[in-house]
UniProtKB/TrEMBL annotation:
Residue(s) at site: Important for catalytic activity: 240
Ranges of compositional bias, category Polar residues: 1-12
Binding site for substrate: 33, 35, 189
Residues annotated as catalytic: 219 (proton donor)
Amino-acid positions noted as binding Zn(2+) in the UniProt annotation, renumbered to this chain: 31, 33, 216, 308
Listed HAMAP family: A_deaminase
Cofactor binding note of this UniProt entry: Binds 1 zinc ion per subunit.
This protein's record includes keyword Phosphoprotein: no
Name of this protein: Adenosine deaminase
Catalytic activity: adenosine + H2O + H(+) = inosine + NH4(+); 2'-deoxyadenosine + H2O + H(+) = 2'-deoxyinosine + NH4(+)
Keywords from the named record: Hydrolase, Metal-binding, Nucleotide metabolism, Zinc
Source organism of the structure: Nocardioides furvisabuli
Keyword hit for Metal-binding: yes
Enzyme category, top tier: hydrolase
Amino acid sequence: MNDVTETPTSTAVPARPTREQVHAAPKVLLHDHLDGGLRPQTIVELAAEIGHELPAPDAESLGRWFAESADSGSLVRYLETFDHTVAVMQNGPAIARVARECVEDLAADGVVYAEVRYAPEQHVANGMTLDEVVAAVQEGFDAGMAAAGGRIVVRQLLTAMRHQARSMEIAELAIAWRDRGVAGFDIAGAEAGFPPTRHLDAFEYLQRENAHFTIHAGEAFGLPSIWEAIQWCGADRLGHGVRIADDITVADDGSVELGRLAAYVRDKRIPLEMCPSSNIQTGAASSFAEHPIGLLTDLRFRVTVNTDNRLMSQTSMTKEMFGLVEAFGYTLEDLRWFTINAMKSAFLPFDERLKIIDEVVKPGYAALIAG
């Protein structure tokens, strides 16, 4: 699994793939939030069961409200959307349903492997234990994978909130469940004022346990957040990492100079979990065409493509990848490169990653390219 041999090949100028081809292509997703991907109809039904008041009365108008709130440019209004999704995920059956539907929706979109993250600490308001929350998610994932008939593998990433003080507890939970469906650990939440080093004890514990973890960094805050995540905390991957472009200078003549941090990230092949639609909504990029993913791909960083919050961004892996096709003229070979990058970077054992690449990803793309 050598990066040098898996490079984009769009210089051969083959035809751009259609949306139908992108949908049919096998896709790998590393950055997707469980509480950011609920079906609007499910929210309506679960809210009615518990008497939770929603900002819209039916699924169609609620879906519009989520989209408008996420696109409003107001961080306060964007974060308010999660108040409603988290509110309806406070008991085992509801959490299991959301998890099952998540797998069903990803499988229907052609995703063959996914790591879905959520913060267990946000789902204990009604008395569930952290362990019960993880068990409910796993129940739903197992049901979804069974219904998909082996077409998708899904693993959990347990997230700690960076503004809270439960990261060690969540890290220990991830270790307790790592042979039962949990692939790794993450921290999320506001970057500014809450550096990853506040949770250094959790990251050092995970390293001692030979565990995998990713860190949200370089999305709303700049290079210091990325530097701390990598050099102090030892992150295996960067959640978003879009601001690494701030350490790259492109001259008027097109020549490129990488700063020390950007060069290190590229040299070490540290995966970047890039989420174009979400980055546009949060102001980290102005459009698909202006997203740093184009430059980072040209420079052969370990770029991956992801959804972040499918409900809030009204997106899917097909939509994200096809948006890149339209913006940069990417081909099926390029999408194959993104997909293999992601599968190489997954928190699965090496032999399992290799099997999915060799038996699912490569044959799937080969059939599309040949056909």
